[in-house]
Amino acid sequence: MAVKGWISFWWLPIISALVWVGMLLGMLLHWIINDHSRPYAYQDQDISVVFISNVGADVLKPLFIAGSCVVCVFLDLSMLAARWLRHQGRLVPNSSRGERSLAIGTIVFGVMGTMGLILLSVFDTKNYNKLHYVFLLFFLGGYMLSAVCTCCEYQRLGIKHREHRDLRASFWAKLAVVLIEGTMAIAFVVTNFTKQNDVAAILEWAIAFLFTFFILSFVIDLYPAVTTKPHTARFEKRGPREMEEGSGATTPHHYSNGNVNSSFNDNVIDNVNGNSNVNDNVNSNVNDNVNSNVDGSVNDNVKGIINSNAKDNVNSNNNGNSNSIANANVNGNVNGKVNDNT
């Protein structure tokens, strides 16, 4: 299981870079140790440093061809993997047609550079001098344009998604390689056509070794896909209509993965529950107040009625008693007077 976790797309550029550096070191050490750092017979004997193509045109031509093929295949697979992972939501997806076009341009120009490198290794400088330099320009131009496209793509992605630091890291790494290699490539072409062979050869070896860092920069792009293997952790994908609407937008489009959505839903549910609890409390308080007020009003009315009725009854009783006493006194007085007369 631990080994399975280490198998991922970010190994593609590492394999490409290791093969590239191994091939270059093998060819350089072969020329230094086995050829004693001397120019080949078909070269000007006054030069001190040979070109990579000179070493690759001799006994190490099979290594040069095989190594170039492996490097290009794994580098192109790295570019294709980055595009596929963005489409699947494993990496931050493209949010506009411009970004998607730049991603496609990265692959197309990368394939052009691949064809140039493989063909220049086949058509060596010893037997096919002119064709070799034509394919060398294809190799340099193709990968240079591919690097420019991917820099522009990551620059746009980095602005819209500032929370993902890997986008900015990849952009600055690729930009640094593009600027340095672009400057050195111009110097190489100039010194090569002006027959400054030693300087041109040194620049060629330096450009080749520096190309390793461009390959390794794709590790920064592909490594974040390790954390988005679960479907719940993937990014939301945009449809063609949303991508068309966002192509001219200047405001960033924020994407969230499944964990953020679940947290958002939980917060919404908590808020809804909190609101229902508040409503329940308010309703209970209102009902209690209404009931207490109603009960108080009813009790006051009942007490008022009882008190008024009680007073009326007392008054009527008092009146009745006084009337009966008065009647009794009158009757007593009358009866007494009658008896006296009698």
TrEMBL record:
Keyword tRNA-binding included in the entry's annotation: no
Q: Where is the CWH43-like N-terminal domain?
A: 8-224
Q: What is its main location?
A: membrane
- Where composition is biased (Low complexity), the residues are 265-342
> Which segments cross the bilayer?
9-33, 63-82, 102-123, 135-154, 175-193, 205-226
Q: Where is the composition biased (Polar residues)?
A: 248-264
Pfam families linked: Frag1
Q: Where in the cell is it found?
A: Endomembrane system
Annotated membrane topology is:
Multi-pass membrane protein
Q: Mind listing the UniProt keywords for this protein, alphabetically?
A: Membrane, Transmembrane, Transmembrane helix
Q: Which domain of life is it from?
A: Eukaryota
Instruction: Provide the residue span(s) of the region labelled Disordered.
Output: 234-342
| Protein name as annotated | FK506 suppressor Sfk1
